[in-house]
Amino acid sequence: MTTNKIFTKWDETHSQLWAHQPIRLEHEMHKSPAFSMDELAKLIEGYPRESITAWCRPAPAAAKSCGARATIGNLSGREVIDAISRGGLWLNMRNVAAVDSRYGRLVDRMFEEIVAKVPDFAIPKGHQESILISAPDAQVYYHADMPGQSLVQIAGRKRVYVYPNSAPFITAEHLEDIALFNVEVDLPYKDWYDDHAKVLDIGPGQMRGWQMNAPHRVENLDTFSVSMTISYTNDAIRRSEIVHLANGMLAPPLRLHAEEPHLRGPSYFAKACDAEAAARRQNGSSASAMRAVRSTSHSTRRSPGKLVDLPKAA
User: Is omega for the bond preceding 168 within 30 degrees of 0, making it cis?
Assistant: First the structure.
């Protein structure tokens, strides 16, 4: 990297918009040696197989899903990258900082700079990074996340659609389902939603952030892409997660809504205790039964697909 700073451009508007509205920022992380193709190839070869996911892109007419699972077999890191660059494949290396601390240190520095520039933003209680290597024709379907999110572009170009974090784009029930089932890509989507999205393209040295729980989708712009996703949690995010999880477990009369002022004080702590007690009561087979009953109202649950061999898929 040519400077000691992560961000190359930051003004007062960025400070005002961070975590409140979709934002595009300029960064230097793509210049780190850790993101060279040689280093990424080595990372792939040594990555724990339980923390690496490869997918084949579904056909355009297929239902929205991640596609079919793939395995990288005995391919070298370079061979995997070459296969992805030819199309139809993408690779996700989850929790990369646990495997190579260089990536976590970059994100630590990023948050340190943000804290210095955004008065109401505190260092996250925790963050997790994943590296996504994807084909020119890859896309990420409409979904939302519980933690705070940023997307850092390293190589190639993407188009990012960010939607309002309010109904009809996302509802309290959607967030309860995400908290309860940990299924983030099962949101209903209509073409006219795009009329209300904030759409920005990002390339190497750019990143996007957005407000908590905002639905989003991503398209590669016909280029091989390397990006890093960052998920982070702070007190406000954690409290919101607890409320949504509790509401997903409890009957409607007992529910709170995260948009109401119940994320602190007696009501919140009562709900947190209810959530913990409900989780314990539902543990094991009873939890599975509860989730099965709840899922019957969602006819669009996706199948993860079948396992295929990456060399054949390439």
Answer: yes
Among 225, 184, 181, smallest CA distance to 202 is for: 225
**Is residue 185 packed enough to be buried (19+ CB in 10 Å), middle (13-18) or exposed (0-12)?**
middle
Q: Which residues pair with 231 in a beta bridge?
A: 128, 149
pLDDT higher than 50, residue 286: no
The predicted model scores a pTM of 0.80
Mean pLDDT of 49-58: 80
* Closest by CA position to 215, among listed 155, 158, 278, 146: 146
The single-letter code of the amino acid at 11 is: D
Token pair in block for residue 264: 């602190």
Find the range with the poorest average confidence among 59-63, 142-146, 159-163.
Answer: 59-63
* Assigned token pair, 238: 């954690």
Give CA–CA dist 81/42, Å, rounded.
11
* Amino acid at residue number 152: V
Q: 15 with 25: CB under 8 angstroms?
A: no
How far apart (Å, rounded) are the C-alpha atoms in residues 186 and 181? Answer: 10
Looking at per-residue pLDDT, the higher value among 224 and 180 belongs to 224
